[in-house]
Amino acid sequence: MNGQNRINVKIGATVKIVLKSDQRTGKLTEGIVGKILTNSSFHPHGIKVMLTDGQVGRVQEVL
After folding, report:
1. 31-47 pLDDT per residue, tens
2. Which residue from 31, 5, 7, 6 is spatially nearest to 18, judged by alpha carbons?
3. Which 3 state secondary structure label does DSSP give 60?
4. pTM of the complete model
């Protein structure tokens, strides 16, 4: 599933995100969603989340 729709992203889900520092390279970081930071139902670059380890990025893929 893609991470552009908020309905696909749930707290506790395993996701792949792109961190702000990795946006140019497109390197993905895998983790578990701790908090959903985007309020809108859709975002073209991915829903912004905070992982349980504190990293913040936009969801590219929901596993």
Report:
1. 999 999 999 999 999 99
2. 31
3. strand
4. 0.92
